[in-house]
Amino acid sequence: MKSEIKFCLYLFFFIFCNQGFSQQNGTKIGLWENGAPGFENRKDEPEQAQDWWVRNIHNPSVTAYFPEKPNGMAVLICPGGGHENLVFNSEGKDAAAFLNSIGVTAFVLKYRLARTKDSPYKLETHVKQDAERAMRVIRSRAAEFKIDANRIGAMGFSAGGEVVALIAYNANNVLKNTSDPIDKIDSQPNFQILVYPGPLFIPKEIKADAPPAFLLAANDDSCCSAPIIELLNGYRKANVPVEMHLYSKGGHAFNMGKRAKTNSLKTWPQRLADWFEDNNYFVK
After folding, report:
1. Sites in the chain below the pLDDT cut of 50
2. What pLDDT does residue 271 have?
3. Could you say which DSSP state residue 212 is in?
4. Which pLDDT tens digit goes with each residue over 189-237?
């Protein structure tokens, strides 16, 4: 009897430790085998990370987080940070943990930063290229990741919302004159989730092929509440599915609710889960 109890305790300890390890350590996937085109010579420069931020990104990648019970959905997560840093933990890993808890496979993007001092990168060129390539890589490996290539969305926080905007509103984005088969894959997300998104790259007109949108911000966010209102009006005019949550208070950068200043914002991720369910995204 003692040996059975000892075995059960060992099994519990083994499972618990491995679950904790898997939550803290995702699988890093480079977007290009030899580094980003034109910047291959910088791919081995080490990233810098401290507390909440990551910097010095020259070899773009996604970090994959897989749920215990996948439902076939996937989301590319674009953390914010003003294009100077990446808020990788609270706007990346924490978002992935929540998505995993509801069965969604998550990929956190490390994109090149265009506003760091002496950066050689441009938002509309290199950052866009990173986000497009990330979507293509994920779709190209959909069977391997056990996800549905037609249920892959993009989620952006603050500046990360601007990154999502770079790939969300152009359905004709398959590259031509390329020998890389991955570049021939569609990079537009099937849906988008924008959490206090920055104001850049919002189109003047939303077209009928824009991906359905979940929009969320606090009204007292002077930077990033207006963009979701602008998007809401555009989506309604185009008759494209949209849901918006504008909280009266909360400011900026409340992340997944951990830094929320109000009780209502602490539970905002449940609104996202409701949106998924109401719109049948969980259905295989």
Report:
1. 1-25
2. 98
3. P
4. 999 999 999 999 999 999 999 999 999 999 999 999 999 999 999 999 9
**pTM value surpassing 0.85:** yes
For tokens 């295989």, the residue is 284
Instruction: Map residue 236 onto helix, strand or coil.
Output: helix
pLDDT confidence of residue 138: 98
**Residue 43 · residue 121 · CB < 8 Å:** no
Using the structure block, give the residue that is written with the tokens 């849901």: 243
> How many angstroms separate the CA atoms of 73 and 130, rounded?
21
What is the topology classification, in CATH, of domain 29-278?
A: Rossmann fold (3.40.50)
Q: What is the maximum alpha-carbon separation in the chain?
A: 71
DSSP annotation of 249: S
